[in-house]
Amino acid sequence: MVLFGASLVVLFVSGIAAMLNSGRHPGRAAILGVSGAVTGAALAIASAVPVLAGAPSWQAWTLWQTPLGPMNIALDQLSAIFAILISTVTALAAIYGRGYLSGHGTDPRAAGRSWCWFNLLLASMLLVVFAADGLTFLIGWESMSLASFFLVLFDHEHPGVTRAGWIYLITTHIGAAFLFVMFMLAGNGTSLDFFSINAAGSLRADQSLANTIFLLALAGFGTKAGLVPTHIWLPEAHPAAPSHVSAVMSGVMIKTGIYGLLRIISMLGVPPLWWGWTLVVIGSASGILGVLFALAQHDLKRLLAYHSIENIGIIVLGMGIGLVGSATGNHLVAMLGYAGAILHTLNHGVFKSLLFMGAGSVIHATGSRDIDRLGGLMKRMPVTGATFLTGAAAISGLPGLNGFMSEFLIYAGAFMLIVSGGAIWAGVVTALSLAIIGGLALACFTKAAGAVFLGEPRGPAPANATESPRAMLGPMITLAVFCVGLALGAPWLAKMAGTATGMAATAASFPDSLQVFNLLADITVATVLLVLLVLAAALLRSHVLKGRASTVSPTWDCGYAAASPRVQYSASSFADPIVRMFRIVLRTRRHVQAPEGFFPTAASLETHTDDVLMARVFEPAARGVTRLASLVSRLQQGSTHLYLMYIFVTIIILMIWNLR
Amino acid sequence: MIISAIQVLLALLLAPALLSIIRIVKAFFGGRHGPTLLQPYRDLWKLARKAPVYSRTTSWVFRASPSVTLGAVLAALAVLPLCGVPGPLAFTGDFIFLAYAFGLVRFFTVAAALDTGSPFEGMGASREVQFSALAEVALFACLIALAILSSSMSLSTMLDHSWAAAGNMRGEGVLILVAAALMLVLLAENARIPVDDPTTHLELTMIHEVMILDHCGLDLAMIEYASALKLWIWSAIVISVALPMRTGDAAFDIVAGVCGVFVIGILIGVIESIMARLKLLKVPQLLVVAMVLGLLAVGLGLR
Amino acid sequence: MQTILELLAICLILLNFRLLGASRLRSCVGAVAIQALALNLLPLLSSAGENWWIIAMMAGSTAIKVIVLPALVLRAIDRTKVVNEIEPLVGYTKSLIIGAAMLALCAFASRRLTVPLGGVDQILVPISLFTILTGAFLLVARRKAITQVLGFLVLENGVYLFGVTFAVSEPWLVQMGVLLDLMAAVFVMGIIIYHINREFDHIDIDRLSNLRDGR
Fold this sequence. Notes:
- The complex is a heterotrimer.
- In chain B, 69% of the residues lie in helices and 1% in strands.
- By secondary structure, chain B is mainly alpha-helical.
- Chain C is globular and about 50 Å long.
- The interface between A and C is medium-sized, with 14 and 21 residues.
């Protein structure tokens, strides 16, 4: 519609203007970029909200005619939900990024240029979500990958960033290759338009075609979303990018993979049971491996990146439950699963970007990403600390915040599967996976939040840190408020999410959205009660303590009079018991230089955890491919004569072949 | 509804008495006289009147932790059934709420511990998160088994043995396994021997005690009362699983339940007296045993 | 007519063999010029030879292909002071043997080709293929850039011959196309040779392989 078109135009124009201005007026370029991003996002939200509020979804508005067919866009409830998520988070990240990039030692011209790519990223993500045919989808997809690649390479002078960018580009294109094949198969050579594919119903009729499409979609979209085993680019690319870009990438870009998967599933009719099992298994594996690797990291942003993998695993678990429900004909379970997955997508978009922004604040203030070198920042950066803690509590799924609501839905779906019979083991696996993921996530985030913000500062950098500028604090506070708001609004959101999949998913109708609403209404009442009780306890406490003078003294140190900040438990030590318990998977390398003698002098401990799949599977495979390529490169001697001979010999062979 | 409220009230009143029962049993085994039944109440009262001392390292997280602990445990109490009497706020999925309310308690306790900047608290916190990650899986395995048995999704219906009327024999085996597993988890979650010694004075060996080392005065009173309530909740769950009979009479059930909780207290006291504390490296193995028992219960329930 | 065509055919074959076996560049240039002359005479021998427009075209293309282009190449030879192709990639004896094999291949191939021609002109099809292959072989097997230019010219001659065999009534169509190609190619080649010589002090293409990356 017009608003969406206007949004795209605004984004393109502001991006190009930013690029042109970045040479001589970098400040103006940044303002152009940010305002363009915010305006474009607002226009997109304005076009999406009416559909959610009950207006009928609009279809097939042709954007452009190409030789391969028209480029159509459409908007239904599923697209609207994702569009609002994408726009909101990216707009907030843009405001944050303005403050972040104007800090320490960033080249203002490079910063000005980056706004072009940022706006292009937002525009292409919106195009992906609004696309109504394969061509538009793929164009949006590819521009998304390219724009984010350039954004990842923002700091290309730092070591390791270029490598991260390359790994990202290669992996995302391998995923896109799967998608190309999938769309070609789905279109069956006739049309790539989603509506005509749906209407033709050929995907529903032919089960083997549907299976192939499902697997291709899983491979392609799973690469973008960051599912195990194709997650290897996430822990490289997200830390390498500047923090506002990491927030956008982790918060919304990987969700486009989830969107694609949901869209394809909606075109595929009643699923067989093994699809649901595949998603459940992959979801659990991603969740558990993601959180285990996160526990072993000392780089704050790498830890957060692994957590994104974990949460995508949870989302896919929800989708698995949804598929199992559809396959066994249990529509309430299906709705719970899908609603949980979509709600968790929303929630994760909000709190993960909040956490990345917090990490960016910390890096901005202290210049360090290493958790073991920080500490005590809560007192020096109170707003950042409070919002980060809110995000940490939300991601651990604690009641009162939004993460708990979506995980509750997935739990409910799993338990309803268990209770109602039919595919009980899928429910059992899901529930147990969620349980261990929850426990480990709590461990990981107490480690991260505790080591960074609490305790004593472990060095001069955190000791001298100051709070971030208001441009950076504003978005963080907004997102933290969203965390609470999404928790309270969960019943309505879940109902909307449930009907979104109802409209987009299998032809069978889902009449149980009201039951989902009631389920969540009960739990919301319980969490509100919890919050009220906590507040009551706090009020009681402050009332009783009002008259009493409190003393301040050093922490109890067991009589050791000269405790220094380095005596504190470090983050690595905190996570060490769990890391050692799972060392078969993690294979952490430790370099220990133990203290010797009666009066120890120097000692050190260093741990290093490589991504297991990267080190054991993908890097050897890449080396094998390189070796194969160097064998082939023997054909290329650089001699003109040889090349000419290749040409002529081929022609002669072709001629002889033709004349047979 | 009134019955449920009475049950909650009894819990609020009698939870510290549960602690003194345990101490009395341990004193009996030790040939000592032991504290009186009302001693924990006097301790709480004494603590509540003291002036607070705070460390200069700590921030608002440390000061907020006791309130969150108490509030969350009270909310968990609201969904708790006792031997057939449903909790006042029972709803579908309340067991998830219970488990995660305890998670909230754990998060803030660990955060407060890390906030003090002391290595002992950090050590305790690190052990606590490790053991609770395993314990949570065991707990959920048991809950799944109970859900299969009772075909319901609310803790109150899971624990009221309504299916027993159908004369389901295999339910007994499942219940025994679940009760054993939950007992192990109770010992782990509430810092009892063999997982943790609540009376030790050596900070290096503590888990729960050391995390609250720096709290004092009213904060410590709130935390101690909340842990007493937590012990009550866990004991109520275990006895509701283990006690197979339900009469229809609510009053009788409540009295039976309260006595049952005290019986669990005596059992804890006996365990603490006859066993030594396990090496810390062996505690994960204990929790894995609990996990396996839970999974066996699930498997048995599905056959 | 038949005899003249057969004579022409033999002449062309011999010219090709001369190119394959000659090491002195001037004689190569001469062979190419005579080949161009022979080819340009071909349309005159056919039925369309009476058309004055054709005669004018042939005269023009003769001028260019027989006089101008060889003159340019000779000037390039003088400039670069190269006299002989001393060390070709494929030796002269081998070249001749390969040439014979190519001729056999072309004869065999043209028998399979179903061409809509009368029996008279049928003989020119294998000759044209052979000329193309000779040109290609010269490109591949000779080091000096000038020989490669000559090879390119021979290639174009072969293509023209093939085209004119079919479009005898419209030889100018083929001629135009080939001429244009030729002119552009020779110009470009000339410039490249000049630059290569200036840059590397030699026009030995084989030594250009130093530019490749890798081992």
